[in-house]
């Protein structure tokens, strides 16, 4: 049966993606090989349990697959299996963070995490998430310049004595000092959970410091800078394996998505190639160029710039809110997301910032030259909304030069 309604929606989405500039910092275009694995016959297989310890029959291939992908996950971070354990089954990052917290803590235990409007994630102790309801979150904040204030975090940790500290964020444009976080966690006897979802591709590409050996647990989604399928994985110290992984299965999940695991394996192999290192470096060159150009046009950036894949723009001097800026830019074919900024006077639905990221455009082959052009269009649209239609035409023409593979 040909499902024309769905086929048409897929075609429309292909066209939308081809004809627009994706500056959403958490999005990326996985390779054809990754997408083919997602549509592979592994989708038909149930595999509850762990490799070689399953509940159903027919496991000869999935056991080999999950073992291989786990080995690649350790290898990409230069870890050995004597000290570190890996689980590639988590369905998504938010769930994986909850699984980790439920594994390591008792309900009501205190956790120290970055406040959501300052760049933390919902699943890192936000009041709206079970991670904030089942545990007692205490928040740390960025300083007035938009940087992590390690001394203030240490002081707060000493006062509050959390059982677990979370680092790794969704809207923080600067490098993270994982060693310092580890020292703080050790000082107060807390576990350190590092959520590298946004920056995993940068870490394995060698352009951001690694959280190993500093962290006790790493959680990462697999579809952002790592450029894999939508999914997640957890790596933890061997001695924490039982506590955490039993919360993945049977705690919160049933059968793993073996087709996704196959696709994660392919993305991990791609990430170990020399071309991926080049890609990771280009992501940063592109975001730094974008940041510099926007500054020339008078945009204020949180922390004044970027060390990674994203730029957080404070729009307050531009007389436009984040929501309106997102809508306006989208009408010009430039896709972004509205975002809170530290100490935001606005609301999460209508915050004062927009977040821009370069991983997807870099995958399309764009470089510094293209970033300059895009910064110019962003400036034109924000300053002169009537130009949006004309710029949309330019964007569409420009996008043809960078086809999606
Ligand atoms: N939605 C992701 C992001 O955009 O950062 C986080 O889950």
How do the helices and strands line up, and which of them pair or pack?
Layout: H1 4-19, E1 21-22, H2 32-38, E2 49-50, E3 53-54, H3 60-76, E4 84-87, H4 93-104, E5 110-114, H5 130-133, E6 136-140, H6 150-160, E7 164-167, H7 178-188, E8 191-195, H8 200-204, E9 217-221, E10 232-237, H9 241-252, H10 258-271, H11 274-296, E11 300-301, E12 310-314, H12 322-331, E13 334-335, E14 337-339, E15 353-357, H13 359-363, H14 368-383, H15 388-400
Parallel strand pairs: 1-13, 5-6, 5-7, 7-8, 8-9
Antiparallel strand pairs: 2-3, 4-10, 9-10, 11-12, 12-15, 14-15
The protein binds D-serine (DSN).
Q: Would you give an account of this structure?
A:
The protein has 405 residues and is α/β, with parallel strands linked by helices. The protein has two domains: 138 residues, Aspartate Aminotransferase, domain 1; 239 residues, Type I PLP-dependent aspartate aminotransferase-like (Major domain) (Aspartate Aminotransferase, domain 2). The chain is 43% helix and 14% strand. The chain is built from 15 helices and 15 strands. The chain has a seven-stranded mixed beta sheet, sandwiched between helices. Helix 2 runs antiparallel to helix 10 and helix 11 runs parallel beside helix 14. The chain is globular, with a radius of gyration of 21 Å. It starts with a helix and ends in a 5-residue tail after the last helix. The relative contact order is 0.15. The structure holds D-serine (DSN). The site of D-serine (DSN) has 4 residues, from loops.
């Amino acid at each position: 049966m040909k499902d024309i309604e769905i086929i048409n929606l897929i075609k429309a989405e292909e066209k939308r993606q081809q004809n627009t500039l994706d500056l959403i910092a958490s999005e990326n275009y996985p390779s054809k090989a990754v997408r083919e694995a997602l549509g592979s016959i592994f989708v038909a297989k149930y595999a509850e349990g762990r490799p070689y310890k399953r509940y159903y029959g027919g496991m000869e291939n999935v056991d080999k697959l999950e073992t291989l992908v786990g080995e690649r996950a350790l290898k990409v971070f230069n870890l050995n299996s004597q000290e570190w354990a890996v689980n590639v089954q988590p369905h998504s990052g938010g769930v994986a963070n909850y699984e980790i917290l439920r594994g390591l803590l008792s309900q009501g235990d205190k956790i120290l995490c970055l406040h959501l409007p300052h760049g933390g994630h919902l699943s890192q102790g936000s009041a709206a998430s079970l991670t904030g309801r089942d545990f007692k979150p205490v928040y740390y904040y960025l300083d007035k310049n938009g940087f992590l204030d390690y001394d203030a975090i240490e002081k707060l940790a000493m006062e509050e004595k959390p059982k677990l500290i979370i680092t790794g964020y969704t809207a923080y444009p600067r490098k993270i000092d994982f060693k310092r976080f580890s020292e703080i966690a050790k000082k107060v006897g807390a576990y350190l959970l590092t959520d590298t979802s946004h920056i995993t591709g940068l870490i394995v590409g060698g352009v951001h410091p690694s959280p190993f050996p500093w962290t006790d647990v790493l959680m990462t989604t697999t579809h952002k800078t790592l450029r894999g399928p939508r999914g997640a994985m957890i790596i933890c110290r061997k001695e924490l394996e039982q506590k955490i992984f039993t919360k993945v299965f049977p705690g919160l999940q049933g059968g793993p998505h073996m087709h996704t695991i196959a696709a994660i394996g392919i993305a991990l192999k791609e990430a170990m190639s020399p071309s991926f290192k080049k890609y990771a470096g280009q992501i940063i060159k592109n975001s730094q160029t974008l940041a510099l150009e926007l500054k020339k046009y008078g945009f204020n950036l949180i922390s004044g710039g970027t060390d990674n894949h994203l730029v957080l723009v404070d729009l307050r001097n531009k007389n436009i809110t984040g929501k309106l800026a997102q809508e306006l830019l989208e009408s010009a074919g430039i896709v972004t997301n509205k975002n809170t900024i530290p100490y935001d006077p606005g609301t999460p639905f209508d915050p004062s910032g927009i977040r821009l990221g370069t991983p997807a455009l870099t995958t399309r082959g764009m470089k510094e030259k293209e970033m300059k052009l895009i910064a110019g269009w962003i400036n034109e649209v924000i300053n002169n909304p009537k130009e949006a239609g004309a710029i949309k035409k330019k964007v569409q023409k420009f996008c043809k030069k960078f086809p999606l593979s």
